[in-house]
Amino acid sequence: MAVSVQIVLLRLALIPLDLYRSTDFEVHRNWLAITHSLPLSSWYYEEASPWTLDYPPLFAAFEWVLSQAAAFADPEMLRVANLEYASWATVVFQRCSVVAGDLLLVLGARRLGSTLGSSAQGWSTALLALVGPGLLIVDHVHFQYNGMLFGVLLFSIADLEAGRIYRGAALFAALLNMKQIFLYLAPVYFVFLLRGHCGCVFGVGPLGIRLNFGNLVRLGLTVLAVFALAWLPILATGQGMQMVSRLFPFGRGLTHAYWAPNVWALYNTADRVLAKLGFGAQQGASSTAGFAEVYESSVLWTVPPKATFALTLLAYAPLARLIWRQTAPSSSLPLPPASSGADAAAKPREFAAMPEAGRGRFALYAALGSAISFACGWHVHEKAILMVTVPLIAAVSAVGGPEGGVGDELRQAAEAFSVIGTFSVLPLLPQRCAQPRGGSRSWRNWSGTVVWTVAHR
Question: For 329-344, b where at least 16 C-beta lie within 10 A, e where not — what string?
Answer without folding.
Answer: bbbeeeeeeeeeeeee
